[in-house]
Amino acid sequence: MADINQMNKTSPRAQKSLYLRKQDLRRGIELMFFAYRDFTGEADDILSRLGLGRAHHRVIYFVGRQPNMTVSDLLSILKITKQSLSRVLSHLVAEGYIHQEQGARDKRQRLLSLTDKGLVLEEKLTDVQCKRFASAFSACGGDAVAGFQDVLANLINEDERADLRKRYPDLFE
Amino acid sequence: MADINQMNKTSPRAQKSLYLRKQDLRRGIELMFFAYRDFTGEADDILSRLGLGRAHHRVIYFVGRQPNMTVSDLLSILKITKQSLSRVLSHLVAEGYIHQEQGARDKRQRLLSLTDKGLVLEEKLTDVQCKRFASAFSACGGDAVAGFQDVLANLINEDERADLRKRYPDLFE
DNA sequence: TATTATTGGTCAACATGGCTGACATAAATC
DNA sequence: GATTTATGTCAGCCATGTTGACCAATAATA
């Protein structure tokens, strides 16, 4: 596989679908890199001014999305160790962004939710990211958005996709 | 903006395009998070067994894509500090993944290219990521791929997009 | 030619956010 | 009563970003 691009040009019979050529797959890799970087950039700036990082953002985002979730829930979404999460979560609780209360059914559980302060920050962060998406979506139209969602969903590991489908039924339409 | 979803349901006159509702924008955020994590996961595993990280991957990838690029070129693509790059790049040179030679036009420049060892690793890493894209693209079809590319391109900062268009004319079709 | 700007390297220090391992505790469950 | 589960905590390591300071070689220019 010295040069698949070359192959595609010189050997019509080996021609793949237009979107499965090596150059198209590489474009996917590159677009993901650049888009993800800019997608997170603005929020990172806001966070850094507050002494917070991207890890804090993830916690705030997912707790905001699903109030009263447990630490376990969060761990299985973020797929990091509890020690890593603990550091970030403790900080957010200490700074008053996150409120935790004992679970009723299982008293060991800490049910996590955003405080008012946390909610304000969550809205601010989600807002800048949503604006970016709104702008991109508007520029591309509904069919492109559907394709975007479809491809991203299929980039997710299959088992993880099944888990997510259960947890967030509306994530995949 | 207590609850835009609620608003969309209860106030038909405030209804936005189907793909610009808050829930759709949030879906974009979430899909990006999960897809990016899994997109990088396999490569990260390969790299960690070699004592390398994602930062090394980026260098290997972009040097592989554009041999004989300079350190400056790489810095403006990766958008990290030269000190950060230096650490990673020195390591890759020491480990024999990257070859550097003095620039002919400007003797200060180090022109970077992959060694045979570097090329082997680059192909292995690119291959696992390309396979993921090939699988996702196949599952979704060409229209979805076009939409995917279109949306990602529009998520990139406008000025950056212009720069990229000059550097990699084929990145945006 | 002398000065300035560019390209790049280096050293030191620090922060974030992953990781592992070990151990503690309370509550639920078998 | 014993075991499993949910969670916390402490200690340390590693990768990868940051800033600031400073140096050297080369290129461009006044």
Quick structural overview:
By secondary structure, chain A is mainly alpha-helical. Chain A is built from 8 helices and 2 strands; from the N terminus they run H-H-H-H-H-E-E-H-H-H.
List the helices and strands and how they pair.
2 copies of one chain form a homodimer.
Chain A: H1 4-10, H2 22-49, H3 54-65, H4 71-78, H5 82-94, E1 98-102, E2 110-114, H6 116-140, H7 142-155, H8 158-167
Antiparallel strand pairs in A: 1-2
Chain B binds a DNA duplex (30 and 30 nucleotides) through helix 3 and helix 5.
Task: Describe the protein's architecture and organization.
The structure is a homodimer of 173-residue chains. Chain A has 173 residues and is mostly helical. The longest helix of chain A has 28 residues, at 22-49. Helix content of chain A is 68%, strand content 6%. Chain A has a two-stranded antiparallel ribbon with strand order 1-2. The first copy, chain A, is globular and about 60 Å long. In chain A, β1 and β2 (110-114) form a beta hairpin. Chain A has one domain (19-140): Orthogonal Bundle (Arc Repressor Mutant, subunit A). Chain A has helices at 4-10, 22-49, 54-65, 71-78, 82-94, 116-140, 142-155, 158-167, and strands spanning 98-102, 110-114. Chain A has eight helices and two strands; from the N terminus they run αααααββααα. Chain B binds a DNA duplex (30 and 30 nucleotides) through residues 53-56, 70-72, 80-84, 86-88, 90, 103, 106-110.
